[in-house]
Amino acid sequence: MRDFKIIAGVTVLAAVLVLAGCKGKESDEESGEMVLHHVLPTKIKSLDPVSMRDVYSASVSGQFFETLYEYHFLKRPYVLKPLLAEDMPEVSEDRLTYTVRIKKGVLYQDDVCFEGGRGRELKAGDFVYGVKRVANIKNISENWSLFDNRIVGLDEFREYTKTCEKAEDVDYSRPIKGLQTPDDYTLVIRLKKPWPQMVGTALADRVTAPVAREAVDYYGKDIISHPVGTGPYMLKEWRRGSFIELVRNPNFRGEAYPNEGEPGDSEAGLLDDAGKTMPFTDKVIWTIVEETQPAWLMFMQGKIDTSPIYKDNYNEVFSQGTELSEKMKQLGIKLEIFDDPSTFWVGFNMDDPVLGKNKPLRLAINRAIDREKFIELFFNGRHKVAHGFVAPLMDSYDPSINDRGYARYDPDEGRRLVKEAEQIYGGKLPELKLAVPGTDTFGRQMGQFLKRQLNDAGLDVDVQYMDWPTYQEKISTSSAQMFFSGVSASISDAEDFLGLFYGPNKAPGSNKFNYSNPEYDSLYDEATIMNDGDERRAIYRKMEIMVLKDCPAAFLNHRVAFALRHEWYKNYKPHAFAYGVSKYRRIDMKKRAEYKELLKKVK
Amino acid sequence: MTEHQQTIKKAPKGRSLWQDGLRRLVRRKLAMVCLVVVVLYFLLAGFLYVAEFFDWQVGPIRWAEEVGESYQPPSSNSIFGTDIFGQSVLRKTLYGTKISITVALCASFISIAIGVPLGAIAGYFRGFVDEIIVWIYSTLSSIPYILLILAFAVVLRDKTLFGHKLAGITSVYLAIGLTSWVGICRLVRGEIIKHKEREYVLAARSYGCSTRRIIFQHLIPNVFHIVIIDFSLRFVAFIHAEVILSFLGLGEADRPSWGAMINDARIELSRGVWWQMVAATLAIFFISLALNIFGDALRDSLDPKLRVQ
């Protein structure tokens, strides 16, 4: 009898545990939590400011890593405003010294790396530490090119790190003359030469986000998956290849929603939350969905808040031109169209013995690609042909570049240039290798398209499809011969684009083309210390033409973004340069709850 | 001539196992129709190899040619319409036959080349050797099949073997072949255990034949009908495996295969482009059906004891 009781007790306990385990995950409606649901089209490799350079990790890390300055959420043209800084920097007369006052009382999120597990106050030294980590050559940071030959003493610090065995051996307490902290709330930056774009380029970029030394010491190499920031959210869970979940950071100081924007914002409801304390939502979740169709179906089912328009869903979205179809209207789906300052290209590795020394070959590839058809097939004709590499939104964009014919499709000339290239090479050209990021259908079809175009010009091409981290490693180590790539500007100045071809920025820096042209480099050095104006714009345009003539890439298209959002997704205004925007978003919970019923009715 | 001698002379000539099986097989009309279908697929694949070798510009070889606008629905000009690049879906489907048959054939030979000798050695020697081989294939079979193939395909991709890069279909048939020998190994082992004590084996042993000769010249030929039956049934599974691998992006990337076509068509369905999916599915359907029916008939004919009533 006693045995029976024990067995019965254990059985009941097991049943209770099983039933408790079977309970489904609470929906947002059930939990009452306001949650943002997004999709990431690829895995991300790191959440450490030292090793982040792509838009996907920026989209996530922007929610917990804050910068000294950020772009205003609503104002256009884009303007910078302080975020962790008290005010805009004080700049010396010689334009070489920047003094930044840092907000007091900003706390890091609670984390076991801190004493007692409680987040400590942000100090000016954390910014210096963050920049030193980028400078540490052992960390192999792709972001170093941003600081190369800019800050007094920083290059010497980088030289010193070369003498250390490991990244951990570096003495971060070594002073740097150009990065001083007279007190815990003041950061003084001394430059070697004027850098007027520094605030937008560096101080509003995640690469200068403050890093708590305690976190790096505690997590060591695992710091890439244990971000410790000061932002409105903090990482709760990251399952690589599956999802990323952020929750509200209880230590966040709170920030007021903007009170002003540009004309039309108020009418669009973008100022309804003016003055209210942000963030509005409790959680932000990114589900990693590499395939476009599952992502689209999730959007249509209301499981994610926003979506781009994939090429195969174009007909479903629009009835005519850019007018939404009846179904989309009934479902309350909204369309936002905006110029995205981005350029995509087939890049050539100029260090490659076949491509680098053979300009006719590079020009042949450039002539062989029918960009209009490329845009028609893969973007439903929505993007713009890239005649140069500076995107149309930039103030130095030259509209007359369209007439110069650098993006001309001329297969006959392409074939003639291939013959010329063969003479230079001394025989039949070997098979060229093209690295394409993505193993999905879109990537494969794009690779096939490019292969067909180059085959038509008489070139043999092997398209190599790879996942995003593999691809990034390949182009960062200069082991790709040709690569399909692109960039979105992070500031409204064309420097982001021009820096891609600056000699000292060679891979693993941003110059993945390994393009080197002393004249271009000296113009770049000259332009980057100049203030905005016609003279600087003229130099920028001259530099662009130099690159187009040397042809280190076949520029393909500029993106025009078509974004869809559900009606419940509030405070959405496309922003070309900001990533930490989840704090502005709000969800109309009632509308989201009603969507399921609406979906049934429309079906 | 004595009466006894006359009786021997008049006795009907005996039929071998193979002749007997063939006789039973040709009586099955449906199986013969299916055989014709299978042979047609093989002939098409063979023809495409020859055409490619001699550079004959026949339709399926020119699958990459643009025959019309993107995504043209089926019409008299193009029976199965066109794909994103304006290529004929019919031509791609026909060319896909070559990829599928090549993969299935090579994978079958690899799995037979590994499975049959291992099964025969395990069955004949038993003991420690048997335990080792059984342990290897039990371990291998405990891993989910598709995951195992995927792992092999990922590992083999971009590797080189004797200077030959294992890309595209080479890595696919190697991955399938190297992971699919367990079934045939088990069957052959069981059959050899049954046969090894039979009179003809004992006779060979008493004549002083070597172990190698007994296994490869006496035992394996006598159990080879099992291999043929397994081959015919497994062949279709290999075609499916190739389709799955191509569908998952691990197969042939630059040339049309049925799996890649279904992969493309999957997202195109949302824009109403159904013809690529239908064409590839029909191609797979007919060869799968034909091989299954023919394989069943072959099994019933060669090994009537296994016949399912």
Give the arrangement of secondary structure elements.
The complex is a heterodimer of chains A (about 600) and B (about 300).
Chain A: H1 2-22, H2 28-31, E1 35-40, H3 55-61, E2 69-71, E3 80-82, E4 90-91, E5 97-101, H4 124-135, H5 154-162, E6 179-183, E7 186-190, H6 198-203, H7 213-219, E8 233-239, E9 243-248, E10 255-256, E11 277-278, E12 283-288, H8 292-300, E13 306-308, H9 314-317, E14 318-320, E15 323-324, H10 326-330, E16 334-339, E17 342-348, H11 359-368, H12 371-379, E18 384-385, H13 411-425, E19 432-437, H14 441-456, E20 461-466, H15 468-476, E21 482-488, H16 495-498, H17 518-528, H18 534-550, E22 553-558, E23 560-565, E24 569-570, E25 586-587, H19 589-602
Parallel strand pairs in A: 1-12, 19-20, 19-21
Antiparallel strand pairs in A: 2-3, 4-5, 5-7, 6-7, 8-9, 9-12, 10-11, 13-23, 14-15, 16-23, 17-21, 17-22, 18-22, 24-25
Chain B: H1 3-10, H2 17-26, H3 29-54, H4 89-125, H5 127-141, H6 145-156, E1 160-161, E2 164-165, H7 169-179, H8 182-195, H9 199-206, H10 211-247, H11 258-268, H12 275-302
Antiparallel strand pairs in B: 1-2
Helix pairs in contact in B: 2-12, 3-4, 3-12, 4-5, 4-7, 4-8, 4-10, 4-12, 6-7, 7-10, 8-10, 9-10, 10-11, 10-12, 11-12
Describe this structure as you would to a colleague:
- By secondary structure, chain A is α+β, with helices and mostly antiparallel strands.
- Chain A has 3 domains: 9-39 and 242-336 and 568-601, no CATH class; 65-230, Periplasmic binding protein-like II (D-Maltodextrin-Binding Protein, domain 2, 3-Layer(aba) Sandwich); 342-558, Dipeptide-binding Protein, Domain 3 (Dipeptide-binding Protein, domain 3, Roll).
- In chain A, 31% of the residues lie in helices and 18% in strands.
- In chain A, the strands form 8 sheets. In chain A, strands 18-22-17-21-19-20 form a 6-stranded mixed sheet, sandwiched between helices.
- In chain A, helix 11 runs antiparallel to helix 13 (411-425) and helix 17 (518-528) runs antiparallel to helix 18.
- Chain A starts with a helix and ends with a helix.
- With 309 residues, chain B is an all-alpha fold.
- Chain B has a single domain, classed as MetI-like fold (Orthogonal Bundle), CATH 1.10.3720.
- Chain B has 12 helices and 2 strands.
- Chain B has helices at 3-10, 17-26, 29-54, 89-125, 127-141, 145-156, 169-179, 182-195, 199-206, 211-247, 258-268, 275-302; strands at 160-161, 164-165.
- Chain B has a two-stranded antiparallel sheet with strand order 1-2.
- In chain B, strand 1 (160-161) and strand 2 (164-165) form a beta hairpin.
- In chain B, helix 7 (169-179) crosses helix 10, helix 9 crosses helix 10 and helix 10 (211-247) runs antiparallel to helix 12.
- The longest helix of chain B is centred in the middle third of the chain and has 37 residues, at 89-125.
- Chain B is globular.
- Chain B starts with a helix and ends in a 7-residue tail after the last helix.
- Classes of the chains: A alpha+beta (603), B mainly alpha (309).
- The interface between A and B is medium-sized, with 25 and 16 residues.
